[in-house]
Amino acid sequence: MRGTVYRLAAAGACAVLGLTVAGCGSGGDKAGHDEHVLLLSIDGMHQSDLADYVAAHQDSALAKLAARGAQYTGAQVLAPADSFPGIMAMITGGGPKTTGVYYDDTWARDLLPAGTKDCATAAKGAQVPLTEEIDKKTEDLDGGQGLTGLPDGISAMTDDPSTVLDPAKLPVNPVTCKPISPSDYLKVNTVFSVVHAAGQRTAWSDKHPAYQIMNGKGGRSIDDLFTPEIDSNSPQGAAWTKDAEQTQRYDTYKADAVVNEIAGKDHSGAKQVGVPAVFGMNFQAVSVTQKLPASKGYGVDGKPSALLASSLDFVDRQIGRFVAALDQAGLSGKTTIVVTAKHGQSPIKPDALTRVDDKPIIDGIDAEWAATHPQTPKLIAHSIDDAAILWWLADRSPEAVAFAKRKLLAANGTGTDINGNPKPFTASGVDTAQVYAGADALTYFGASADDPRVPDLFAGTNGTVYTAGKSKIAEHGGTSPDDRHVPLLLVGSGISKHEVPQQVSLTQLAPTILDRLGLDPQQLDAVKSEHTATLPS
């Protein structure tokens, strides 16, 4: 696809060929552009979920959108299939090697640990948590803004979550000796950067203030960034994610913000500011419910449980609200709607699940290495293991890399199945054909040897979820089809109903979003670097 630009816009073809297709003359300009793009991520949703839901709910909002849009049934997220690499791909057009974002909790060899004061003598190497960990107050829905009367007063939250990030929890730039913000950690710009620079309004709603990263390098580009903290305490006392209904309530706050924005207001509904050119939100309801043991996730037939089905119904109702609001505002013929997911969730089949506690594996490797290398008591400097394993090593020598890989593949034990019963595992629960260490990891990610952020070891799994307990039955972040095969549905001016079965990447969304708005995709750093094409029509 290098150097080739494929256009979704069929309206130009309508004019040239005299064709009549859905969307022609419906409000977009003659080139098939729209004035707005509404981007929706249903985190955890699979392409199979969308297909099954549409087939079983012909009158649903999703079915009605599918009846007039393009479905990319071969859409894939990049590996590791995590929230941050996923959303970065969608809004930058690039993968981790280009964005510098390999996961939501990662390690950077070129930065200094949070709180470093003496930058001249401090050793480089720092955790970079793009999670709730960097809020001023994680337990508060506003992240530490200091509001009272929440959650009912949630609309008063700031539109700039930079103000609720704790500088003391951010890694330090060794050159400036100052904390580095998530947006400055990102190596490239985003669709919000380009749209904002073009003088148009932007907005987004997501689950942590750390999503400040979506502004991209170069400063603030999202005019209204609404990020209520999902790992805060709900009115029931526990985190919102401990209960499916509470998660739906949480998602409703963000959906309310989108409805306000469609009406030309800010997320709170208090100010009239104009409809954003690009805006949207992520839904957590499906992802959270897939993980909850009480939900049972999916049946042996791959169909959603009753609780998961209710979360899918909830999301569909919210999307129906958006469509109705667009109709009421007279924007339906001027708006491209994108429905997709940052990541899927694995495993779908309940009997494939093996829950493995990774801590004894890591501790054992560290202890055995330290016995002969006392100068490096902790070989694995940082690990993040969900539905895959990512390790950054303190010693990156070929000897150390080979040792870590060998011990990973030699670790056997007993985990638990979906019912909490003992279930043995071998090779630490990884797929032995998907273990990439050292030079192999560089090749897998397409990264250069001097990349300071690439993992030293990456391993995929087939059904393994790394968890110390029995609190979840699914997770994402891996390489399996359950993690990566997500829905991708586009509805807008000049787009007729059709399916595109060929494999496409979510990186192709970013240039497509700009193309739909009549802006140049080549203004995206990652698009130029990776030669990312727009989605084929």
Automatic annotation (TrEMBL):
Pfam families: Phosphodiest (PF01663). It comes from the Bacteria. InterPro entries: Alkaline_phosphatase_core_sf (IPR017850), Phosphodiest/P_Trfase (IPR002591). This is Phosphodiesterase. It comes from Nocardia yunnanensis.
